[in-house]
Amino acid sequence: MNKVCAIFGGSRGIGRSVAQLLAQKGYRLAIIARNLEVAKAAAGDLGGDHLAFRCDVAKEHDVQNTFEEMEKNLGRVNFLVNAAGINRDSLLVRTKTEDMISQLHTNLLGSMLTCKAALRTMIQQQGGSIVNVGSITGLKGNSGQTVYCASKGGLVGFSRALAKEVARKKIRVNVVAPGFIHTDMTKDLNEEHLKKNIPLQRFGEPVEVAHAVVFLLESSYITGHVLVVDGGLQLVM
């Protein structure tokens, strides 16, 4: 089986670190982001014959077209990483409906759509591996992130159910749930305040999560699992 991996959200943060590790392992990669130029820059930094694609994961037409283009230019996708995500942190009573919808569409519906598109090929090949990037907040909850937590918690339920649906086709589906990681999404957080609730007293780095993603992506006997990658975060704030 050719090692072709599509990484949605692969132009920055955790997704970009995953791409770097997989490139070193000889995978052919599709780096997918909303901004094509940023995706091209990330793919170019990897060297080799990796390609970049533009896609809004919340739009089914975009997702379908992207998979068609990937198959045409890279071959059948047998590995999928969903690392695209957004947050609009706010107390629920202050959260605009459009911000609720955008988070649910990107963080949850988007992963559903990419998984659905990838499964068509994976079922034909009788094999494949999917890793969805969630969040520890989707397991424990966090004040000021109700909608984000809902989207990531939903991703866990979706992934576990999908793992049961496709296991007989030798397709594995897992989730990595990071704690607070140094990415664009956490740059505005009060890190010193949050460290008080982290026994290891530090934020994680994207590459630390990326190693967990790659482990689950390549493991042949783990499916329906949620791997938490954090420093003992308590989320008592």
UniProtKB/TrEMBL annotation:
SMART domains in UniProt: PKS_KR
Gene Ontology biological process terms, A to Z: fatty acid biosynthetic process
Keywords: Fatty acid biosynthesis, Fatty acid metabolism, Lipid biosynthesis, Lipid metabolism, Mitochondrion, NAD, NADP, Oxidoreductase
Pathway(s) this gene product operates in, as recorded in its UniProt entry: Lipid metabolism; fatty acid biosynthesis
Reactions mediated catalytically: a (3R)-hydroxyacyl-[ACP] + NADP(+) = a 3-oxoacyl-[ACP] + NADPH + H(+); a quinone + NADPH + H(+) = a quinol + NADP(+)
Residue ranges occupied by any Ketoreductase domain in the UniProt entry: 3-183
Subcellular location: Mitochondrion matrix
GO cellular component: mitochondrial matrix
SUPFAM superfamilies per record: NAD(P)-binding Rossmann-fold domains
Keyword Chaperone annotated: no
InterPro entries reported in the protein's UniProt record: KR_dom, NAD(P)-bd_dom_sf, Sc_DH/Rdtase_CS, SDR_fam
Primary location group: mitochondrion
EC annotation from Swiss-Prot or TrEMBL: 1.1.1.100, 1.6.5.10
Molecular function in Gene Ontology: 3-oxoacyl-[acyl-carrier-protein] reductase (NADPH) activity; NADPH dehydrogenase (quinone) activity; quinone binding
Functional summary from the UniProt entry: Component of the heterotetramer complex KAR (3-ketoacyl-[acyl carrier protein] reductase or 3-ketoacyl-[ACP] reductase) that forms part of the mitochondrial fatty acid synthase (mtFAS). Beta-subunit of the KAR heterotetramer complex, responsible for the 3-ketoacyl-ACP reductase activity of the mtFAS, reduces 3-oxoacyl-[ACP] to (3R)-hydroxyacyl-[ACP] in a NADPH-dependent manner with no chain length preference, thereby participating in mitochondrial fatty acid biosynthesis.
Assembly with partners or alone: Homotetramer (in vitro). Heterotetramer with HSD17B8; contains two molecules each of HSD17B8 and CBR4. Does not form homotetramers when HSD17B8 is coexpressed, only heterotetramers (in vitro).
Similarity comment text for this entry: Belongs to the short-chain dehydrogenases/reductases (SDR) family.
Family matches, as PANTHER family: 3-OXOACYL-[ACYL-CARRIER-PROTEIN] REDUCTASE (PTHR42760:SF133), SHORT-CHAIN DEHYDROGENASES/REDUCTASES FAMILY MEMBER (PTHR42760)
Protein name (Swiss-Prot/TrEMBL): 3-oxoacyl-[acyl-carrier-protein] reductase
Origin organism lineage: Eukaryota, Metazoa, Chordata, Craniata, Vertebrata
